[in-house]
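Researcher: Sequence recovery benchmark, item below. Answer with residues only.
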């Protein structure tokens, strides 16, 4: 998959809002090829959406681990925007920061097809209440851009639930076996999105080096974790002095990378760091890979939430009360529920994730060891589009926290265990 330009390792386009053409609707199919400038604008918008989303979700999550796929949420909302008109459509596009992206649905359709040629499976569906007359153009465009026909609910709750869960299970390669416990009452429109990602590290970890270690929750407490270790891991990373953070990039064999942001302090404001993070310059900031002593915990995470409240805080309350969805049907409609679930497993050969994913790397004296809370983003390398974003506060929430050993001895062991490569 090659898309010119964009945040990846190509010439950066100047920032700023460029007026989108008034006539783009008419010229839709002629001028909608994905140029560097357009994919740059899409990547920038989705990155801002990702940061907004993580910020809101973290307020709700009360210091637990968070994994989200802003891309799959954006695809579902864009699919809804296809059926929305006037203010509702405007607010949807503004919430995703894509209002200035020309040919949005066409671009997302191209992106969706290209991404699914790699290690990613993407699926989105719109379930509608029985008896709704849905407009032909909406049906055609849903399939054309999002690969989804709206599905009519049977009205028999148990059957609908079973069918929806079966679809999600298949779309996520079995990673999310039960997506919904129950259907919201009087479901009129149910918006579903599923994404599955299985990435293999370009440089694998040797399982025989994996062993018990600790993860620092804060200045006082640690929890035990199984830590994957490598003596001379080829890693590109840098320190951003202005924010007192370190940033590392773990490439997958496909055109995706884990980018990890790790603070040097335990008390830090994720939102502040992300809002000031120079993601558009990332390519220029990442130096050449150098042999580095690396430690990453083995993690298995699962996160589920209803997005109604979060999206409401992001300016989309009307979706759940009285949206204008007249491009779907002339009958009054409202969205009763938007659900998102993510799983992540991080292991020696790579990452398997559905609907979202997480990993990170921190530095202790002469090594990069992921042993404290961190934020991660998985980027598609060519476009710089974020596929997953999240934060890990505690990779082993079931373990009882332990009081930390004196810091000096901890660092001394680290240095002895991992002499700096010459």
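Model:
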């Amino acid at each position: 998959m090659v898309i010119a330009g964009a945040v990846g390792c190509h010439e950066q386009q100047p920032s700023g809002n460029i007026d989108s053409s008034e006539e783009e609707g008419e010229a839709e199919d002629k001028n909608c090829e994905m140029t560097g400038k357009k994919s740059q604008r899409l990547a920038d918008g989705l990155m801002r959406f990702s940061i907004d989303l993580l910020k809101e979700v973290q307020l709700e999550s009360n210091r637990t681990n968070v994994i989200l796929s802003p891309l799959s949420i954006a695809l579902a909302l864009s699919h809804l925007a296809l059926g929305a008109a006037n203010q509702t459509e405007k607010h949807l596009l503004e919430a995703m920061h894509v209002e200035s992206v020309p040919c949005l649905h066409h671009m997302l359709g191209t992106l969706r097809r290209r991404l699914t040629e790699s290690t990613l499976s993407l699926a989105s569906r719109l379930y509608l209440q029985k008896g709704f007359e849905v407009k032909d153009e909406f049906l055609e465009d849903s399939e054309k851009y999002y690969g989804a026909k709206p599905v009519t609910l049977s009205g028999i709750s148990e059957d609908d639930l079973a069918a929806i869960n079966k679809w999600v299970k298949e779309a996520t390669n079995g990673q999310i076996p039960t997506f919904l416990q129950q259907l919201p009452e009087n479901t009129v429109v149910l918006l579903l999105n599923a994404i599955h990602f299985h990435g293999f590290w370009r440089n694998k970890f040797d399982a025989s080096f994996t062993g018990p270690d600790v993860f620092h929750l804060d200045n006082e407490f640690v929890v035990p974790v199984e830590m994957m270790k490598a003596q001379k891991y080829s890693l590109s990373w840098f320190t951003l002095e202005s924010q007192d953070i370190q940033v590392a990039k773990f490439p997958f064999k496909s055109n995706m990378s884990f980018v990890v942001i790790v603070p040097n302090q335990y008390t830090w404001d994720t939102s502040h760091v992300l809002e000031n993070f120079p993601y558009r310059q990332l390519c220029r900031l990442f130096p050449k890979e150098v042999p580095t002593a690396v430690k990453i915990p083995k993690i298995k995470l699962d996160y589920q939430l209803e997005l109604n409240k979060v999206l409401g805080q992001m300016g989309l309350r009307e979706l759940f009360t009285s949206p204008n969805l007249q491009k779907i049907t002339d009958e009054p409609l409202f969205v009763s529920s938007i659900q998102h679930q993510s799983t992540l497993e991080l292991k020696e050969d790579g990452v398997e994730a559905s609907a979202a994913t997480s990993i990170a790397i921190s530095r202790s004296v002469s090594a990069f060891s992921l042993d404290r809370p961190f934020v991660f983003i998985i980027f598609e390398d060519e476009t710089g589009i974020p596929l997953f974003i999240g934060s890990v506060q505690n990779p082993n929430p079931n373990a009882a926290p332990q009081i930390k050993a004196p810091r000096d001895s901890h660092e001394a062991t680290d240095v002895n265990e991992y002499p700096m490569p010459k």
